[in-house]
Amino acid sequence: MGRLKGLFFLLCAFSLAGTSVIAARFFHDGPGAFTVTGASLLLTLLILLPFGWRELAAAVRRLRAKDWVLLSCQALFGIFLFRMFLLYGLARTSAGEAGILTGATPAVTALLAMLLLKETMDRTALLGILSTAIGIILLQKLPVSGLESTFSMSHFTGNVLVLCAALSESLFNIFSRSAAVNAEAAQREPIHPIAQTALVSAMALALCLIPSLPEHPVSSLAAMGWQKWLALVWYGPVVTALAFICWYAGIKRCRAQTAAALSGMMPFTALLLSVAILGEHAGWQQWAGGGLVVLGIVLIGGNQRPGVKTRRAERLLDKKREAAT
């Protein structure tokens, strides 16, 4: 039952995350990236604090130094850098392509696990990474079979920035899962999802304050129309608060590979909504590239066999639970 709840929460989290690309697109000619991020996080905290102040106070009393470090890394990579790269990237590329490119996160996560954590990778995962790489190349609109190229350096730069956002998201996945595993191994009660979301949002907001000053946040926000305000509300309380709460509730019940498989909802949601809401055109190269990226996600996330270290850790936790009962 717990795993089914985890799957449901992760499915909701990634579906909402896919809409973030659409919401961010409304700010390409509005306030600066730091202002948009800071304002959305402030709205998030205004919604969360009245409902979760007790959980937040209890969590702060239990946190250790290592917990604060992991939360700071989640704020830096999962919110601050992810949104900076995404917002600057969307000024140069389409929302549909940006959504698909963020779907490269599982491939980036697998590579980081192999390079940094020395984890092994089977042929299926390698094939998934290759599929993702080919899909990303197709999304650059390079000339194919003698067709006229629509490649531009600005478009390429935008896609690179979005890939940097995917890298930031991958690091966030690693840090958040590490925090959950550490709490379980120490047999400590995990941080409540609302409290964890509030702490990470507050830290990311602090990172935005000084960089937003040159963007004249008060005047730029006051000049926004109702559509941008609606997008800001969605970008904050809905995408940030609700999606992160679902993410933290799901990742403590499911392995990272399961989350990687479900992350295919993010590029699918972004591509479909970019066509339906923003009226963007997706050519055959974009659909083919998106299909290959999603295929890579399935191949990487479908590899559910835990490694040797994971199996040992699971057996150790089982023994601790038996001893406790």
Automatic annotation (TrEMBL):
Keyword Transmembrane found: yes
Intracellular or extracellular location(s): Cell membrane
Annotated EamA domain residues: 5-139, 157-300
Bilayer-crossing regions: 33-56, 68-86, 98-117, 124-144, 156-174, 194-213, 233-251, 258-278, 284-302
Domain of life where this protein originates: Bacteria
Membrane topology category: Multi-pass membrane protein
Keywords associated with the record: Cell membrane, Membrane, Transmembrane, Transmembrane helix
KW Flavoprotein (keyword) present: no
PANTHER family: INNER MEMBRANE TRANSPORTER, S-ADENOSYLMETHIONINE_S-ADENOSYLHOMOCYSTEINE TRANSPORTER
Family: Belongs to the EamA transporter family.
Entry protein name: EamA domain-containing protein
Organism listed in the record: Gordoniibacillus kamchatkensis
